[in-house]
């Protein structure tokens, strides 16, 4: 592992048998896993370049068990790493050698659906796609749709603030979650938000969504469900250059058109996806845009004409419009399968995640080509073009000495580029361990200290998912110190309590 993680606490590891016995008393039967062979499936998440078997795995089935496990670990000073389906691409669920891995897979029930209020209450282990499956017969669906939606869990989506191909118009997880039930590290169970559009009090729900398992463990989620649009049609638009495609993205948005989805793929990704799903993607173009419009039929027809006109003006060399629902879904099938498709053309790939202003898209894609040549590694680009959320797939071979390190360096340069042009380090994959050491490229020491103070407010012992997000995790006592210089505190005119 080229990534540095916190040094394991040998004293805690020495108590492994005692810890397992105590947790078995809370979660009986097969709820605790301590056999080394059975721990292997939990040694990594979707960022498989980094692996570390956990000390123990606990699989609770009720919120009371979650509460009791956390309360016991809190009292004993034992670290806990929450895990959903393990599809995180930033190492957010990477275990620690001296930590209990808390698996939430058994929380897999849709608890309630209210079509009048347009909400569903689900457990965190329910997969993203299962929410739509539960309500589609009544004409509803759940809008956020990550490419891994068949496997990723709602709890993981909450942790990482996941998006998907339709987040441009309908928002990310944070825009579609109304409330959560959260278990704190000391075992306290709290509810944040609810079915009301705008609950009273501080927006603690907005803090929890995207907190990457650092603040608490989610045991229930209330999500917004939407009525399926009357019409949805997609355009498949080919361009002779990625720069032309990027300009088309900017021009469509500038024209006041907000597509339901707007995705881009470059030549390597197009060829990989077409070979994998065989849906008829054009193979003689350098870039492909998939643009979906939805709403009333008349509105869709008008907007399709407008998007095609803009695309032609930007140099589109082909434009194919879906004729029916089956063809629309076929257009998306290739994009949804792009990640596994790229896995067929390279022994390994490193999936990055950064976000940039849309207007800088042509420039960034061009500079990524230069970085590819500089690092000597290929890259396939598949991303949410409409909101500037990039997902470059760096192609490498882990069996070649030094290839992983070059891929990491290439990825770091891409993320620094994103920040340089006014973007951010992540869009939906989170920081985890992957981007942890790059946080100072975006945040000052003061910024990071304030974020860590928030962490301390929820988890004073720093026991939940340590080693993630923050490059240097200060103790809460250090962050709370008052600096005194020459007998004077900062801002002496302010009253102190």
Count of alpha/pi helices = 17
- Judged by helices, strands and strand pairing, the structural class is alpha+beta
Q: Strand content of the residues, in percent?
A: 15-25%
What is the CATH class designation of the largest domain?
A: Alpha Beta
> What would you say the CATH architecture of the largest domain is?
3-Layer(aba) Sandwich
| Low-confidence parts | none
Number of domains: 3
Write out the strand line-up for the largest beta sheet, numbering strands in chain order.
Answer: 15-12-14-13-18-20-16
How far apart the termini lie comes to: 47 Å
CATH superfamily of the largest domain, please?
A: FAD-linked oxidases, C-terminal domain
C-alpha geometry: globular
Q: How much is the average pLDDT?
A: 93
List how many beta strands DSSP finds: 22
Give the helix level as a range of percent: 25-40%
Describe the largest sheet.
7 strands, antiparallel
Radius of gyration: 24 Å
The third-level CATH topology of the largest domain is: Vanillyl-alcohol Oxidase, Chain A, domain 3
